[in-house]
Design goal:
This protein has 311 residues and is of the alpha/beta class. It has 2 domains: 221 residues, Alpha-Beta Complex (Spore Coat Polysaccharide Biosynthesis Protein SpsA, Chain A), CATH 3.90.550; 69 residues. Helices cover 47% and strands 12% of the residues. It has a 7-stranded mixed beta sheet, with helices on both faces. Helix 5 runs parallel beside helix 7 and helix 8 runs antiparallel to helix 9. It is elongated, with a radius of gyration of 25 Å.
């Protein structure tokens, strides 16, 4: 059965890759008989990438005014797409377009909303592989989205998965986790991975650090998005309880003739109690902010798979 797909490819300084990649994507889409569109999002390239894109056909090109990052470029491409399924992939030719039909078939067979590629045999330098494996292990501990390789850009999504969802930071790595939190069915399949033959990698320690920070954000959203008071307020109450216990020791010291100013327990009591009070108030304010967010946006803390009426 054919499919209606939008292939979204963020690119930056990939002048030597976009032409051959486009030919590969085009060949796959025509061979499979897809109703398709190919969308490239130029993320502020400083080389001739855009000039090469102008020579390609059929394409839709979205040019960002400057380099906003891969996540922003992917979000712009997704918002520009119009087809039933959205296929995302990197522009460095390390993802193989020939894996697209297999991913779509697997998605349909397993009745998934999202399927992610798993680069089981990665063709990357040791350092990049090492950092990626460490990040994947930490992601499994914090959010456990069931995906071995969330950093693989080759994924297929149903269009409705992105309703009300805006990407930011380095969140493109965690889209499956975010959608799983909302109740979408997420799976994966092993895909091929090719060594880079042209251009330079865009990954560096800054992107890794941003990814770790965003991972913490996803963890918090998963656990406490609709109840931040349970986390902050709970820690605040614990601090105040510890402060009360420290206060008892301070009272004992004062009763034994020690000056309040010389009591370490008194200082600890003040610190714990005030810190706990601040955390509790922060929890209350966060709770109000979350309610305001859900009340003023289209986002909700759940997703509906289907609706029907029997009469």
């Amino acid at each position: 059965m054919s499919a209606s797909i939008s292939v979204v490819v963020p690119v930056m300084n990939e002048q030597d890759n976009v032409g051959p990649l486009h030919a590969e994507i085009l060949e796959v889409c025509r061979r499979e008989g897809y109703d398709f569109e190919i969308i490239y999002v130029d993320d502020g390239s400083s080389d001739a990438t855009v000039d090469v894109l102008r020579t390609l056909s059929p394409v839709k090109v979205v040019e960002l005014r400057r380099n906003f990052g891969q996540t922003a470029a992917m979000d712009a491409g997704i918002k520009a797409s119009t087809k039933e399924l959205i296929v995302t992939m990197d522009g460095d030719r390390q993802n193989d377009p020939n894996d697209i039909p297999m991913l779509i078939t697997t998605m349909r067979q397993q009745r998934l909303d999202v399927i992610s590629g798993w680069r089981k045999n990665r063709q990357d330098p040791f350092a990049k592989n090492f950092v990626s494996r460490g990040a994947n292990l930490l992601r499994k501990i914090l959010i456990n989205d069931g995906i071995h390789d969330s950093g693989c850009s080759l994924k297929v999504y149903k269009r409705d998965a992105f309703e009300g969802l805006t990407l930011y930071g380095e969140m493109h790595r965690f889209i499956p986790a975010i959608l799983k939190i909302k109740g979408y069915r997420v799976g994966e399949a092993v895909v091929s991975h090719r060594a880079r033959t042209a251009g330079e990698t865009k990954y560096n320690y800054r992107r890794t650090l941003k990814g770790l920070i965003d991972m913490t954000s996803v963890w918090f959203w998963n656990k406490y998005a609709v109840r931040p008071l349970h986390l902050l307020g709970g820690i605040g109450l614990l601090f105040m309880l510890m402060g009360s216990i420290a206060g008892m020791f301070a009272v004992v010291e004062v009763l034994n003739g020690k000056a309040v100013n010389d009591s370490g327990w008194a200082l600890l009591t003040t610190f714990l109690f005030l810190s706990g009070l601040q955390l509790f108030v922060a929890g209350l304010l966060s709770d109000i902010a979350i309610k305001t967010y859900f009340g003023s946006t289209r986002d909700v803390s759940y997703s509906i798979a289907n609706e029907f009426t029997n009469e």
